[in-house]
Specification:
It is globular and about 60 Å long. About 25% of the residues lie in helices and about 25% in strands. Helix 5 crosses helix 6. The N terminus is likely disordered. It is built from 11 helices and 21 strands. The protein folds into 2 domains: about 250 residues, Medium-chain alcohol dehydrogenases, catalytic domain (Quinone Oxidoreductase, Chain A, domain 1); about 130 residues, Rossmann fold. The longest helix is centred in the middle third of the chain and has 14 residues. It binds zinc ion.
């Protein structure tokens, strides 16, 4: 069944404000959409997802495709209201639309970035599955790299905070009670251009490929987690999950010359990448005990596995967000005197460290996608297929 509808509304760009030459800092959506499939069917098929099954174990073979195949229909309407951009909007649970939108307005202290690469990771997958804290409609994509109007090649640190609370004044911006991420609570890189604060820009070296730049944001998470773990040369390290976060942790461990770096993942391609980065033991399932263990997945099963892999008085660091709750054998945990540490996002310094680490990445690990290839990838993830090492939207290619 083919549904047709018209979406007419205003999308407020979260970072735009007044003081511009276009006081109507709103973005008018102006597309007639045509969806292939019945959305009602798609949503009811999606219902079991909200119970939070384990990442990588769920199967949703009957999820109806909601692809808006608009590429041939898009007619740019420049001239009436300024530049028109293409953008992917998350409109609800498993509802992603390719739209023409008016270019956002840059307010004081803000700059345009032409998006060269917007990496697609766990946040985008989970946002598509359940928008959660996102304000809809939302342009996802928080791992952004691109070029400014002045020609600067930059990565965008998406973390925004108040700058005045106790935690911000101590440099712990991710602990700010009003933190936001560009591409989560405001609009991000799944568009040809994004407006960001000038303070969010981190310069990229000229010789870094855009594919390597796709790893900068996840690796910045890894650098923060690595620091919080206290891991050092001589420690044995295990990493559950070899997506962007896991590969970043392998790079950290290799940089620190750790004697044993073990990685668990179901994807042979991701395990090959981990090996090339320096892992010396890779498999679908790890055994043994390690000084420091990282869980980058966040499912109940992965978290329990990571804690079980941690030796007595060792450290287990949790980064993954697949499920909200953690269930452990508290008696065993207490008697073994293990430490569990949470690690969330990064600082500008972590971004700068990550830029050095991503030089270890091969550009072949990145699958470059067009706008219309993003939703099929997310549906593949929903079906439990995480074989892609790293995917990234290339909006201006
Ligand atoms: Zn603050």
């Amino acid at each position: 069944m083919i549904l047709q509808w018209v979406l007419q509304g205003k999308l407020q760009f979260g970072l735009a404000d007044g003081g511009s030459d276009r006081p109507e800092a709103a973005v008018r959506l102006r597309r007639t959409h045509r969806a292939i499939s019945n959305r009602k069917t798609s949503r009811s098929a999606a219902a079991p997802l909200s119970t939070g099954h384990d990442l990588g174990l769920s199967r949703f073979g009957s999820v109806g495709l909601c692809l808006q195949r608009l590429s041939s229909e898009i007619r740019l309407q420049a001239g009436q209201r300024g530049r028109i951009l293409k953008a992917l909007l998350l409109e609800g649970e498993r509802r992603l639309s390719l739209l023409d939108i008016d270019a956002p307005v840059a307010g004081p202290g803000q700059v345009f970035v032409d998006v060269e690469v917007a990496s697609i990771g766990g946040s985008e997958y989970l946002g598509y599955k359940n928008p959660g804290i996102r304000r809809l409609p939302n342009i996802m994509g928080h791992g952004i790299a691109g070029v400014t109007a002045e020609g600067r090649r930059v990565a965008v640190n998406p973390l925004q905070s108040c700058g005045t609370c106790d935690d911000c004044l101590r440099g712990r911006y991710q602990l700010c009670s009003s933190w936001e991420l560009i591409g989560v609570q405001s609009n991000g890189g799944f568009a040809q251009k994004v407006v960001v604060p000038a303070t969010a820009l981190v310069d990229l070296p000229d010789d870094l490929s855009w594919e390597q730049a796709a790893f900068v944001e996840p690796f910045a998470n890894s650098v923060n987690a690595w620091e919080l773990s206290g891991a050092d040369t001589g420690d044995t390290v295990a990493i559950v999950g070899a997506g962007g976060l896991g590969l970043g942790l392998v790079a950290c461990a290799a940089e620190a010359d750790c004697e044993e770096i073990a990685v668990a993942d179901l994807s042979s391609g991701r395990l090959r990448a981990a090996t090339e980065l320096g892992a010396n033991s890779v498999s679908a399932d790890l055994t043994g005990r390690y000084d420091v263990v990282f869980d980058t997945v966040g499912s109940a099963e992965a978290r329990q596995k990571a804690i079980a892999l941690t030796r007595k008085s060792g450290t287990c660091v949790l980064l993954g967000f697949a499920t909200p709750m953690l269930e452990i054998d508290a008696g065993d945990f207490i008697r073994s005197q293990k430490r569990i540490v949470g690690a969330f996002v990064y600082s500008v310094q972590h971004f700068m460290n990550a830029i050095q680490l991503v030089r270890r990445c091969r550009r072949e690990w990145v699958t470059n996608l067009t706008f219309l290839e993003v939703e099929p990838l997310l549906l593949k993830y929903l079906d439990g297929d995480f074989s892609t090492v790293k995917a990234a939207l290339r909006p201006n290619r």
